Each structure stands twice: as C-alpha cells, then as structure tokens.
Amino acid sequence: MEKEDIAYRQQIVNEYKPDVEKLIRYLPWLEDKAGKNVAETFEGSGIKENSITFPVYDSTLMSFIKEVQRTKLLDRNYAYVYSRNRIRTVKDELRMIDRSGIRDMDVLKGILSKYVMGGMTKGRLWTEAVQNNIFLNIIKKMKENIEFWDKPML
C-alpha cells in the first residue's frame, strides 16, 4: 500500500469521523424502527373537512434529520452520484451502500442527501428511508468504514 493511499484514507477518516460519531447514537432507534412507519397523519380538530392533512413525524426522526443537517454529510449535488453510479431504485441504493468502502463515502453522502434534503419537500422520503433501512445502513456502513481504518467508535 502506498503512502499517499494511506494518507488519503486517513484524511477521509478525519473528515467524516466527527459527524458519523454524532449520528451513531441513532442506530438503536433506526434498528428498532426498521420496516415501521414513523409518521402519523394529523387529522384533529376537523381538519379533514376544511384543509389538507399533514404528517406528524416521530420526534427522534426529526432530531436525526436536524443532526444530519448540521453535519458535512449533505451534498447538494447528490443527483450526480445517482447518475454516475446508475442508481435508480431502492434496491440499487441498498446495493451501493453495501458495496461502499472508505473511498466511496461520497456515494453514501449522496444517498443520505437525497433522503434528508428531498424530505424537506417530500416528507414521505424520510419515512421511506427509515422503513427501507436506508438511514440505518448508511450510518452503519460509514461507521464500519471508519472503524476499519481507525479505531472503534462508541
């Protein structure tokens, strides 16, 4: 292994580790909610007859989304990750997450960004990301990649 290669991997670890450490505390919750709906439709006070219903999200999900938004893990150009890697379906996303190594953190960031940023306008994306284990698998894979090249995180 070349020195530049080791230095590059260490640079990636140093860049992502602080943000991933903030998000791993959500792993137990994401594992618990895997495959479950984490939003309810608000229909109180006769709202159904007079206006549109809206989703009410689990408070932990909202904390997770806000935490991700405070990290460097969001990529506004996530669409390029999707086109460059020919990602079109949830199956493609899960396959790319599973195959991603330390050098593919940009792919993980891209998929995370699609759901977090896209969920700002299409709220169902957040619940889909929890139900389909997208958030869970991304955080687990980021943690695994960093720990492989560094030391275990708590």
Q: What are the key terms here?
A:
154 residues, mainly alpha, two-stranded antiparallel sheet, 2 strands, 64% helix
Helix percent reads: 55-70%
Any idea what the radius of gyration is?
17 Å
Biggest β-sheet: strands ordered side by side in the sheet: 1-2
Strand segment count: 2
Question: What assembly state would you assign to the polypeptide chains in this entry?
Answer: single chain
Q: SS-based structural class?
A: mainly alpha
- Return the average pLDDT rounded to an integer: 90
Shape label: globular
- Give the N-to-C terminal Cα separation: 28 Å
Strand content: 5-15%
Low-confidence parts lasting 5 or more residues at pLDDT below 50? none
Describe the biggest sheet? 2 strands, antiparallel
Helices and strands, in order, run as: HHEHEHHHHHH
Annotation field: number of helices = 9
Note the topology.
Elements: H1 3-23, H2 27-33, E1 39-42, H3 47-50, E2 54-57, H4 59-69, H5 78-84, H6 90-99, H7 105-118, H8 124-131, H9 134-149
Antiparallel strand pairs: 1-2
Helix pairs in contact: 1-9, 5-7, 6-9, 7-9
Description:
The relative contact order is 0.19. This protein has a two-stranded antiparallel ribbon with strand order 1-2. The radius of gyration is 17 Å and the shape is globular. By secondary structure, it is mainly alpha-helical. Helices cover 64% and strands 5% of the residues. Helix 6 (90-99) packs parallel to helix 9 (134-149). It has helices at 3-23, 27-33, 47-50, 59-69, 78-84, 90-99, 105-118, 124-131, 134-149; strands at residues 39-42, 54-57. The mean pLDDT is 90. It contains 9 helices and 2 strands; from the N terminus they run H-H-E-H-E-H-H-H-H-H-H.
